[in-house]
Amino acid sequence: MQVNAPAIEIRDLNKFYGTFQALKGISLTVKKGEKVVVCGPSGSGKSTMIRCINQLEEHDSGDIRVFGTLLNDNVASIDEIRREVGMVFQHFNLFPHMTVLENCTLAPILVRKSSRADAEARARHFLEKVRIPDQADKFPGQLSGGQQQRVAIARALCMQPEILLFDEPTSALDPEMIAEVLDVMTTLASDGMTMVCVTHEMGFARKVADRVIFMDKGEIVEEADPETFFTQPVNDRTRLFLSQILGH
Amino acid sequence: MTAQPYLSNRRLQRIRAEYFGSAGSGLLTLISLGLIIGIGWAVLNWALLRGSFTATATQAECMAKGGACWSVIAVRWRVILFGIYPYEEQWRSAIACAVVVVMTILSCLPVMWRFWRLAAVWGLGTAAFYILMRGGYFGLIPVDEQQWGGLALTLFLFVTTSVLGMPMAIGLALMRRSDLPVIARVTGIIIDTIRSLPLLSILFAFAIVLPFVLPDALTGDKLYRVIWGGALFFAAYEAEILRGGFQGISKGQEEAAKALGLPYWHRISRIVLPQAFRLALPATINQIVITFMETSLVVVVGFVELLAAGNTAYQTGEWKFAYVEVYAFISLIYFSFVFGLSRYGAYLESRMNAGQRKE
């Protein structure tokens, strides 16, 4: 891991599902500490792209580097990257057979080789940070959706990653719970975490993002700072998308 | 009016509504009650009220009382429990049974579910069982596996078959869902082949055909070959049960584990298998119960397990008439073990569901 290298560097990324090309020559660089929001219509490849960054999807050609480490078929390099890149999913994917605390300490103990005491102390610290310190001994099924998603964020933070990927973190939530998750994400952003968020929460994008990326049909169509992106979008498809999503 | 009569009124009303709601259902209720009472009385009358319990009762005396002749059990219980194991040494077989039961109960306790604790229980338990049964150490007279029998043999077959079969099942189930198509396909064919053979033919093949195919050093005693055959059979079915469990787990679970950097074995052992076992538990208990029953099939390759021992117990002239009593006794033994198993399964299910709601 090179400290001075860009956090994420994607060059000419292509991904096929059979004959369908999901990603068409994507190139993207994310600097350390930068917050990037990725939006676009469904099926535009935005989830596929961020899932390539921690290799939940294998890409077919192109290079992905995380802090200078090239992701290839080498399992060791994939494991190394996954330790540094946390991910938060649309459907939380908490482990239902473990308590909240166990969800948060499992990977630090097994992967980072932390002692149980250290791992639990850190888990309680991050549970406090996502504002659910008193739920540590409950099972995920006993929590609301918003609480589960905040546990999922704490679980990712417990690995102390350099980068956090968010894959539509609020899409599966009831409207009244979206704010509590976005608040936590905003706090993280102000702490200097490198973040790539696939989301349709344009308010969050405007407030937090350093850069907004619009994807359509497997390509990056527009890339700009939030002010320019929302007020003077260049591309027709971006304008159409924004009018649809902001229009009501 | 106090609360108590009100409550019992409600209960009476419910009974009336549920069991005597209409003329038809009332009639059905009465007929069923009559049957239950009739059969219950007949059994009670036969087994206890008119039964003979003295060890010395002859057939004529039993007939005179008109009920069950439990004398056959009093006289022949050692044959039923220990088969053709040498008479003087049967205390060893009795202790060996107790060892298996204790070993099983210990490994069913959640406190023991640590690798080293289970390994210790199983290592020591199996060694104790073997030394007791086989002899040859500590001045115990050697007893050939061919002479093991009765309950001790049934328990040994059951426990070893399930304990060897379960890891094999996990291995097969994991290979079946491998990312490498060749491994997945070949494993699928192996599982399907085993499942399309009757257990009898597998036992025959392992007991009788295998020695012709493999060198002597690899085959071992017929008893162990039969156990391997039974374990393989168990594994094929249990692998499919586990596959059903795997399919019930959302893809997101493994993805979340990958995203946290957990390597394959940790993903499987900490995330996938615990959830798969929970989903597969009812069917797994079912399969284990079936395995217990199927131990009786080893009689075809010449082993005198519980049921076969029971057959020999009444098949000498004087007790030929008392086969019902012998089978009732054996059924009671099977029942107590299998009923215990299924209660344990129910306990496990409620334990695993505690505090967990489906997402």
From TrEMBL, chain A:
InterPro entries to which the protein is assigned, alphabetical: AAA+_ATPase, ABC_ATPase_HisP-typ, ABC_transporter-like_ATP-bd, ABC_transporter-like_CS, MetN_ABC_transporter-like, P-loop_NTPase
Domain ABC transporter: 8-242
Protein family: Belongs to the ABC transporter superfamily.
Gene source species: Fuscibacter oryzae
SMART domains: AAA
SUPFAM superfamilies: P-loop containing nucleoside triphosphate hydrolases
UniProt KW keywords: ATP-binding, Nucleotide-binding, Transport
Stated name of the protein: Amino acid ABC transporter ATP-binding protein
Gene3D superfamilies, per database record: P-loop containing nucleotide triphosphate hydrolases
Source domain of life: Bacteria
Residues passing through the membrane, by range: none
MF (Gene Ontology): ABC-type amino acid transporter activity; ATP binding; ATP hydrolysis activity
Pfam families for this protein: ABC_tran (PF00005)
Automatic annotation (TrEMBL), chain B:
Gene Ontology annotations for the cellular component aspect, listed alphabetically: ATP-binding cassette (ABC) transporter complex
ABC transmembrane type-1 domain boundaries: 151-342
Record-linked InterPro entries: AA_ABC_transptr_permease_3TM, ArtM/GltK/GlnP/TcyL/YhdX-like, MetI-like, MetI-like_sf
Pfam families: BPD_transp_1
Keyword hit for Transport: yes
Membrane topology according to the record: Multi-pass membrane protein
Regions crossing the membrane: 20-44, 91-113, 120-140, 152-175, 196-214, 226-242, 288-309, 321-342
GO molecular function, one term: transmembrane transporter activity
UniProt cross-references to CDD domains, sorted A to Z: TM_PBP2 (cd06261)
Keyword tags: Cell membrane, Membrane, Transmembrane, Transmembrane helix, Transport
Any one GO BP annotation for this protein: amino acid transport
Subcellular location: Cell inner membrane; Cell membrane
Transport is among the record's keywords: yes
Family per record: Belongs to the binding-protein-dependent transport system permease family. HisMQ subfamily.
PANTHER family associated with the record: INNER MEMBRANE AMINO-ACID ABC TRANSPORTER PERMEASE PROTEIN YHDY (PTHR30614:SF41), MEMBRANE COMPONENT OF AMINO ACID ABC TRANSPORTER (PTHR30614)
Entry protein name: Amino acid ABC transporter permease
